[in-house]
């Protein structure tokens, strides 16, 4: 059965472009982003991994460790990284998993046979420090992902892990947030002293509490 939000993220051992790793040990107490791409030495994948490397500072700020994955070999990954670094003006430091036997792809349901029998689709999982699946994205091979959106969701996940709030459509870090309906309206001033608006009894907003 495929993974769902809230499920434990399966652990695994893997060969990668930076050597052998145990997934949980690699993550430690950090958040994680595990994302698959169809194949090395392909154009969209080259831009995706380059973009991820360029965003290293943003992932570090959020205490997020990143791992990429495809069914190519570690040697192939190492050669391709040189091309990514050259063409995308970056330095790929995160591991690229060599999942030649497709064990991890199967664990995370990254092969969608009606898209390709052999290659992983563009799956992306955000994993919390307690090793739970918090976000799942699936894109086809022909569409590169928006890594600003990945950071935006991580901001939301990290905020909502700490406060009884949710983030509305198109929210970005710093915007007003929605107070969870588990909080009674009369209790909002104590919980959210920066102020609040009652738009409907079920729609109450407050300035982002950690800003
Ligand atoms: C790409 O990364 O450009 C790509 C990979 C597999 C299929 C289509 C495009």
Task: Characterise this structure.
The chain has 211 residues and is of the alpha+beta class. It folds into 2 domains: 13-145, Glutaredoxin (3-Layer(aba) Sandwich); 163-206, 2-Layer Sandwich (Antioxidant, Horf6, Chain A, domain 2). Helix content is 30%, strand content 24%. It has 7 helices and 11 strands. The strands form 3 sheets. It has a 5-stranded mixed β-sheet. It has a 4-stranded antiparallel β-sheet with strand order 8-9-11-10, covered by helices on one side. It binds benzoic acid (BEZ). The site of benzoic acid has 8 residues, from α2.
- Given helix and strand content, the structural type is alpha+beta
- The first-level CATH class of the largest domain is given as Alpha Beta
Total count of helical runs of at least 4 residues: 7
Task: Provide the spatial order of strands within the biggest beta sheet.
Answer: 5-4-3-6-7
Range of strand content: 15-25%
**Annotated CATH homologous superfamily of the largest domain:** Glutaredoxin
| Alpha-carbon distance between the two ends | 40 Å
Order of helical and strand elements? EEHEHHEHEHEEHEEHEE
Mean model confidence by pLDDT = 98
Principal-axes geometry comes out as: elongated
Q: How many E strands?
A: 11
Proportion in helices: 25-40%
CATH architecture of the largest domain: 3-Layer(aba) Sandwich
What small molecules does the structure contain?
A: benzoic acid
Query: What about the largest sheet?
Result: 5 strands, mixed
Low-confidence stretches: none
Radius of gyration: 19 Å
CATH topology of the largest domain: Glutaredoxin
Number of domains: 2
């Amino acid at each position: 059965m495929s993974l769902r939000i809230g499920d434990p993220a399966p652990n695994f051992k893997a060969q990668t472009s930076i050597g052998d790793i145990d997934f949980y040990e690699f993550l430690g107490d950090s958040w994680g982003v595990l994302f698959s791409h169809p194949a090395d030495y392909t154009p969209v994948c080259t831009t995706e991994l380059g973009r991820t490397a360029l965003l290293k500072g943003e992932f570090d700020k959020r205490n997020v460790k990143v791992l990429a994955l495809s069914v190519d070999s570690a040697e192939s990954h190492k050669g391709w990284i040189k091309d990514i670094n050259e063409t995308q003006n970056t330095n790929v430091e995160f591991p690229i998993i060599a999942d030649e036997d497709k064990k991890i792809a199967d664990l995370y349901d990254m092969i969608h046979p009606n898209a390709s029998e052999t290659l992983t689709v563009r799956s992306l999982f955000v994993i919390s420090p307690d090793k739970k699946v918090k976000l799942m994205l699936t894109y086809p091979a022909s569409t590169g992902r928006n890594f600003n959106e990945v950071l935006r969701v991580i901001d939301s996940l990290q905020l909502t892990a700490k406060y009884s709030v949710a983030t509305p459509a198109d929210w970005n870090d710093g915007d007003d947030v929605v107070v969870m309906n588990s909080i009674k309206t009369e209790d909002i001033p104590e919980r959210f002293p920066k102020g609040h608006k009652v738009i409907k009894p079920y729609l109450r907003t407050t300035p982002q509490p950690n800003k």
